[in-house]
Specification:
The protein is built from 14 helices and 12 strands. It is α/β, with parallel strands linked by helices. The protein binds nicotinamide-adenine-dinucleotide.
Amino acid sequence: MDHIHQPFDQPLNPYAEWDAPMFRLAQEQFLRAAKIMNLDENLRDRLLFPQRALLVSFPSRRDDYSEVETVFGYRVQHVLTMGPTKGGIRYHEDVNLGEVSALAMWMTWKCALMELPFGGAKGGVRINPTLLSRAELQRLTRRYTMEIISMIGPEKDIPAPDMGTNEQIMSWIMDTYSQQVGHAVPSIVTGKPVVLGGSLGRAEATGRGLVYLIVEVAEFLNLDLKHSTAVVQGFGNVGANAARFLEENDVQIIGVSDVFGGLCNPKGLSVRALQQYVEQHGSLDGCSLGDRISNQELLELECDILVPASLQNQITADNAERIKCKILAEGANGPTTLEADEILDRRGIFVLPDILANAGGVTVSYFEWVQGTQNIMWTLERINDRLHEILIKAFKKTLLRSQRDKINMRTAALIEGIDRVAAAKLSRGLFP
Ligand code: NAD
């Protein structure tokens, strides 16, 4: 960090309030890409930190009315240059400012790589949503929305679901915002139910997009998907949909997991049966459709396609040597560390990096926002066709740059995104 300009002679820890392993990962990935592309130093230092961040603490009352917890919430906007900012809201017990900032930075590169008119943002609340009742979750969501209301807006910053949040939470955010301004504002969020102006295809867009890209990679690698196997870590929105679309492409799903652990069956698991189990029981806990294994064992199963679709920091220097897939398709954000990247590169594993692999979600969120602001409705066919077109274009330009400049797919994808943001910053110039 010695390149950061220090205005005073006193020592300064440039990480200070942002410090978190995930933010260091996001910054280090960015700095490596910036070095390769010879990014102007002034631009580099501007892009290294979010432009705006809001940290709030607020009371959250439990159902028995005797307990009031103090809860921390965040909203971070990384780049305000490209248009409104866009990014999901995460409910997780470990969320902190650094993590949300890393996710916001990745959103910037992801939107730019897809050529969407958004800068990156992200939000989070540090709670475990699975421990709250529906009423508690609703109160907490409405209060969090009020706390960040000055920062969000359909032309300013548009939230969406991420880990631990869903359509229902988007509805409460939309309702709270609309109550405040006095009329319905559907485009304040994306990923809301279709009856409230949500887009067809948004709920499954991240998983669907991931599989569009896997099909493209398989073709590039001459891998016959009909005789391929896949393992999916995380069986929520991204993981369950990715498993479903992989199965539709005749890929055999031999392992899945969630926070309670994994299940494997070398003869194949039925995604429909797994989904039915989760609908009835809320999770895969206790499911006997396969043999029980740990999440760590699951990641090391021999397969053609491995899809991490839960938390960050899953493929590390500790297990990268034992990962036995041909394609690593990152449904999650930040699942692979820098050290692991080097090992995977050396071992010739094809990595579909997060900012490309899981960009289907924000792309259909963009369609939802466009439909909302113009009061029009697109068909599912049109949405899926356009999604496919945008993702494959981004994949092709990333692959081309990766081959031409002899860099890995992650760095190539980052450079494509950073390049676009840097050009926009230069065209707008400095104020004043
Ligand atoms: P989700 O809350 O719907 O599902 C998360 C899943 O991960 C659940 O099955 C949960 O049990 C499991 N999980 C949690 N902790 C785990 C652990 N320690 N080990 C194994 N599994 C664990 O979340 P989601 O929306 O599917 O998001 C998953 C990832 O995908 C996140 O990294 C998120 O940022 C990323 N992502 C989501 C979207 C989207 O549209 N929802 C878009 C892009 C990226």
